[in-house]
Amino acid sequence: MDQLRIAGRAYGSRLLVGTGKYRDFDETRMAIEASGAEIVTVAIRRTNIGQDPGQPNLLDAIPPSRYTILPNTAGCYSAEEAVRTLRLARELLDGHALVKLEVLGDSTTLFPNMPETLKAAEVLVKDGFQVMVYCTDDPVQARMLEALGCAAIMPLASLIGSGMGILNPWNLRLIIDNAKVPVIVDAGVGTASDAAIAMELGCDGVLMNSAIAHARNPVLMASAMRKAVEAGRTAFLAGRMPKKHYSADPSSPTSGLIGSRA
Question: Which portions of the chain are predicted below pLDDT 50?
């Protein structure tokens, strides 16, 4: 069976989803169910998963018994902030080690700060975390993060929440071709075709939030994304036909045509 393997664990779905920007926890739950995702990422600084006992707890809608909860450091702008946030998450989730690291460098573009990301990744890996890391689509930086011991590399396709799709497929292919850990597109997916293209390129998975939560019908879009990821992965495994820019190749044989003299 073709499964996604991260940090020694296998998953049937290659679609990872976020939990922000939905109307309420009920819509969050329905969309995640429709997506078929097994890994669900949660912004620790923005969502209550037990930090505030007096407020609704997201984990009541997406229980850890059913999903792998992936705490992330959205909203952190330094390595120190990110490390502190994930240590808190580990306490809240009873020693949970699988985390998503993102250290932002700019509040407008939400582009990653790579020097701080590398610094945080090194500390977290040494501290026993299994780090999935949001990063630029720079093959050299990706190789450095893998060398530090990160469990998955998560390059952006385009800016977070932009819905612009994959703007630089060549860089993604360079990362994919050289990585020995899973490569998961993180940020920029806008619709199902973007997810399919990412998978056809050879990505191991796709993580998204805004593309589903901001759709007119989030639950229906979640279902579309599920199918797109599955179709893209299947197409990648099947292997597309070569592109021929200057010649045609008829689908049917040309010899023995009815009425021909051949």
Answer: none
